[in-house]
Amino acid sequence: MKPIFLSVVIPSFNEEINIRLGALDKVSRYLERQRYSWEVIIVDDGSTDATASLLDAFAQNNSGFAIIHNPHQGKAATVIGGVRHARGSIVLFSDLDQATPLSQVEKILPWFEKGFDVVIGSRNSRREGAPMLRLVMARGFMILRSVILGLSGITDTQCGFKAFRRPEALRIFDRLSLYKSGHEVVGSMVTAGFDIELLYISKL
Fold first, then answer.
1. What is the pLDDT along the chain (204 residues), one digit of tens a residue?
2. HSE-up of 10 (CA within 13 Å, CB side)?
3. 164, 91 contact by CB (below 8 A)
4. Residue spans of alpha helices (H) in 2-154
5. For residue 141, what are the CA distances in angstroms to 17, 36, 149, 154?
6. What is the pTM of this model?
């Protein structure tokens, strides 16, 4: 079996609209133009709409795509499950809605060539139209995580576009504590701390 260079892990929960709007078609078209080998692992987090059936149909018609169906456990457990199934030398997790287009991986991959093991994306820290209170709270959160966790220099911990060398990804994800549980949950599960814990362990 040919070694896989890039694994793209995509968590999915009730993404019927984005799938019908062609988000996965954009992912497929981009990867098909690349010279390196790749795979896409989409982990469905117990969706309650038509997401699961749409994902299965998409994978049947697009080689290189695999679907994992999980009970609802939240984004953290969904990403962890996908990463553990990944076989690529580089493992990237990305949001299905492509808020950060997959093409942005072109800005990330060169950093691995320079010897880095973890490379993360970052969005514009100043969101147009965001309420002032939200901006102040975000700034306060940034200061707290910098002081307490030593994550200074990282302006966007929550960006859903993070890549790892596979051995480093397995090391980091195996050491997760707050978000390693695989128990089923009911309703939405907020896991903002998942990215913080992930980055904190990355620095250890």
1. 679 999 999 999 999 999 999 999 999 999 999 999 999 999 999 999 999 999 999 999 999 999 999 999 888 889 999 999 999 999 999 999 998 999 999 999 999 999 999 887 665 544 445 455 444 444 444 444 444 444 445 454 456 688 999 999 998 888 876 555 554 444 444 445 666 676 666 665
2. 27
3. yes
4. 16-20, 23-32, 51-61, 75-85, 105-113, 132-149
5. 32, 39, 11, 12
6. 0.78
Q: Taking the CB of residue 3, how many other CB atoms lie within 10 A of it?
A: 9
Q: Give the pair of three-digit tokens for residue 201.
A: 């362990």
Residue 116 to residues 33, 174, 197: CA-CA distances in angstroms? 25, 20, 19
